[in-house]
Amino acid sequence: MTADDGRPENQWPVPPPWMWGCPECVRLYRRMKRVQEETDERRRSGDRGVDHDPLDSMIGSRIRLARHLVTGHREHLPDWTPGCERCAWHHRILDTSPEPRHPGGAAAMVAAEHRAFHLFVPPRVVGLM
Q1: Where is the composition biased (Basic and acidic residues) (predicted)?
Q2: Which of these, 109, 107, 39, 120, lies nearest to 71 by C-alpha position?
Q3: Average pLDDT per run of 10 along the chain, which is 129 residues long?
Q4: Sign for the pseudo-dihedral over CA of 89, 110, 53, 31
Q5: Dist CA 46 CA 69 (whole Å)
């Protein structure tokens, strides 16, 4: 554990109770956390020949969970988060995009996935996705 781990922007939120009632949410969440732990351990140990690039597996596991939340639990997604620059950016894109704002549109899907990230990743990470 580093000193940065205790900073509020690095803290992992506790997922809301309704997520624990969905077997797929639980499976995807546990998989995401396991991938992160394995990647962190490989990075710390300096395993040669092991691809411990977090841009591969960690982000993919987060996106899979976010996509499930969007397609299976859209009614539970948080609204735009005040002060989140990425929320503001997605909101502007949706307001100015010629794409229809229906839930299946690409911009709407990515924006909804971003809102889902607020439920289960640290604020520092949400701003990147």
Answers
A1: 36-55
A2: 109
A3: 65 93 96 86 68 64 95 95 93 77 76 95 83
A4: positive
A5: 34
| Domain chopping of the chain, boundaries | 17-127
The whole-angstrom separation of Cα 108 and Cα 40 is 32
Q: Is the pTM of this model over 0.85?
A: no
Nearest-angstrom CA–CA distance, 66 and 116 = 5
Q: How far apart are CA 70 and CA 76, in angstroms?
A: 9
User: Residue 129 carries which side chain, given as an amino acid letter?
Assistant: M
* Cβ-based neighbours of 56, under 8 Å, separated by 6 or more: none
DSSP line for 59-108: HHHHHHHHHHHHHHHGGG---PPTT-HHHHHHHHHHHH-SS---TTSHHH
